Fold this sequence. Notes:
- The structure is a single chain.
- The protein is of the alpha+beta class.
- Among the domains are: 60-205, Glutaredoxin (3-Layer(aba) Sandwich); 214-253, no CATH class.
- Helix content is 30%, strand content 20%.
- The protein is globular, with a radius of gyration of 22 Å.
- The model is unreliable at 267-271 (pLDDT under 50).
Amino acid sequence: MTAATDNDANAPAAKHTMHTPPVVSRTDWERAREQMRVKEKAQTRARDALAAERRRMPWMAVDGTYAFEGPAGKVSLAQLFDGRRQLIVYRAFFEPGVFGWPEHACRGCSMVADQVAHVAHLNARDTTLVFVSRAPQADIARLKARMGWQHIPWFSLTDRFDADFGVDEWHGTNVFYRDGDRVWRTYFLNNRGDEQMGGTWNYLDITPLGRQEVWEDSPQGYPQTPTYKWWNWHDNYDAQAAPDRKWVEISEAGEAAFRNRPDATDTGAGTKP
């Protein structure tokens, strides 16, 4: 099948031909979908296995001291954790010399910010997400208000943190783990690795503790809780620390119903569909 389409919506009469896939019957379409689903399931299992490997990567001790400027003043790297064990730091380029300054941050970094889910879900898994830039706090506050990013904690860089962790010239995401005042770097990604960031699950998958659900393959002694049970509305975590009994019943019934479906297949991830 071919279809004519505009190459440029603003260009008069400029067209090219797209060679689209064939149109088939419902039966043939379902067969093709099932073939693709097998590959997607394999990809899911491979992704889970890769995350399990990532949780077994060696850690690097962070020996230097770093300071950041926040809405309430200066804070240390350990204080960025906000009392939690895991920290994800995304280097966003918003500063003089960046295209868009001072009205906007870098376009690519802005797309990442637009995708960030509510951080309450990360916080519930003992994980803090922050953005850092070299812009002053007054400019960051203005940008967050303009772009609707008030839910993202955003700090100003004041020293060599970006250079020491590979994000002085290009965006990137660093992951850290804290035990008291001791901090370790556990993972880093950039380039197309940042494309997948923004969703709760993808963020948790790059942390040393992972999603912390019982189906995961994690080292012995790692914290894990029953799948689904910790989920909550983003405005209800503080009010309800323990899993809601009714939600536990609903989630268990839903999982059982899924398992009994004739098209349900094992994903290689325990009880996770």
